[in-house]
Amino acid sequence: MPSADNYWKTLVLFILCIYGCASMRNPEGGPVDKTPPKVLKMEPKNLTTNFNSQKIVITFDEYFNIQNESKEFSVSPEQERPPLLKKDGKKLEIIFQDSLEKNTTYTLNFGKAIADIHESNVLKNLTYAFSTGAFLDSLSISGKVTNLLTGKPEIDATVFILPLSRDSIFGKKRASISTSTDSSGYYSLKNLKKDTYKIYALKETAGDKVYQQRTDEIGFVKEPIILTKDTTNVDIGVFKELAQTFRIVDRKLNNDGSISMIFNQQLSKPDITVLDQKSIDDSKLLRFSQKNDSLRLWLQDLTFDSVRIELKNEGKSLDTIIFNRDKKDTYARALVVADNLEIGMLNPYRPYRLIFNFPIENVDLTKIKLTEDSIPRTNFTFSQDSTNFLVYNLNYPWRKKAAYSLLFAEGAITGIFGVKNKEFKKTFKLASADDYGTFVLKIEIPDTTKSYVLEILNEKKDVVATEVITKNRTIKFANYRVATYATRIIYDENKNGKWDTGSLALGTQPEKTFNNPQEIALRANWEQIFTWAVPPPPSTTKKEPEPKPTKD
User: What are the boundaries of the region Disordered (predicted)?
Assistant: First the structure.
């Protein structure tokens, strides 16, 4: 017989073996789960009439989480005490805390509140509707949401309606009747009752379904919708609205001694004046952003305790800002430089540009060393750009395939306040002309009494060229990097040479645009010619296929 010790050892090993073999492990590898939870059952059933329950139970095919409940879940009509959402395994319980009104259709909108546990796949636009009477409201509104500037469908935009009698809550609290657009920009609002509604679309950043003008894009249908039957093709265009009242949204005296401001509007002809202290005003240096919606200001005399700065636009005063400082304040300054190289390559049709973060007072050319294939070169020029005092251009007869090194020794550049650069080095080559091409665009406009703005966009959809068109023209766009470009026309109603956005308060829509569906695939060392017959504004055309530009 085996000893007692051996017996117990054998038993323990046997149990461990069974436990190890039977233990469950998560499968390793395999495809990522991209499927949101699926509804298996609703009790009572969706679209129930004569509803008299205090609780609804929805069963899913997997475990789930409830996320952003306060933002995503809503019930219409609203209740003073909203329903409670409670998880019970794979079941969701919706428990009513308030009594339900008689002969009323209720709609529960879950938005993006339901997501699976492991991958957070969201079950979008889950709704549950019921009626406490014999009749269920069943009207609907559907359509498509697009971006009015790009012409592209807006995905995951929020579309909501407000009864005209409750339109005053817009921008103050979220609407209880809402839905999200699908991957093609389409939406559908269901189980609506007969009423008069205002309809909006919102592309937001905060996710609270309340319009924030500074960050969100808004769209609306100006005239109320009198809903008496299912209504389709209610299309909405969203746009970034400019604030009606000017405001400086951010201002600060930076730790390097400069002043920065950000505005809620794009100004047309801004200017800055330092009040009371003429000597400080005379020596100031300022740079507005390209869109005139922000400012960087350098006051070279920092001996003041406080200073008043007046901001003007087109000669009219917008605001006066007071900046205070302690004379014991110290500042940390460093001269930082960027350039216009593209992945270490210099555009053969552009000068080499260096962009500094401080205005420059002095350049010591003896401390700038340029080498070409390791051979020192001195026949270069380094001068301030005529349009931007923060930019300097270095010109030299660059050669193909040569390797260049540009060394700025410490103290080569001196900015205001005496700040000097630390040693830095740039290495690059001249890009090949084979990487660039030219295209010619023959523009034919529908009405020579009106104004149009042509925009050329790169693959990132950034505007790289702009032309105002008032007559049929042939325009040459030379020496562009080989890539795919898009073209867009702005119907410039007020002839100010730019796209003007809309206004929610005034009920105005932005100026119309047309995004050319045919892109330009630029070829190297080739001059391509395109003819584009610009269509009339969308409102004057039927919904037919838009004419496309043709290649000559």
Answer: 533-552
Q: Which fold has domain 39-106+126-131?
A: Immunoglobulin-like (2.60.40)
| Position with higher pLDDT, 97 vs 20 | 97
| Confidence (pLDDT) at 7 | 52
pLDDT tens, position by position, 450-495: 999 999 999 999 999 999 999 999 999 999 989 999 999 999 999 9
DSSP letters of 349-416? TS-EEEEESS-EEEE-GGGEEEEETTEEE---EEEE-SS-TTEEEEE----TT-EEEEEE-TTSEEEG
CATH topology for 248-321 is Immunoglobulin-like (2.60.40)
Q: Of 220, 224, 222, 223, which Cα lies nearest the Cα of 236?
A: 220
Q: What is the DSSP letter of 303?
A: -
- Binned at pLDDT 50, 70 and 90, residue 71 comes out as confident
Instruction: Map out the domains of the chain as residue ranges.
Output: 39-106+126-131, 139-238, 248-321, 337-431, 435-551
- Whether the Cβ atoms of residue 309 and residue 274 lie closer than 8 Å to each other: yes
- CATH assignment of 435-551, among 1.20.1260, 3.90.220, 3.90.1150, 2.60.40: 2.60.40
> What's this model's pTM, rounded to 2 decimal places?
0.78
Token pair recorded at residue 50:
């004569």
Torsions phi, psi of 532, nearest 5?
-130, 115
The candidate with the shortest Cα–Cα distance to 515, out of 467, 436, 456, 430, is 456
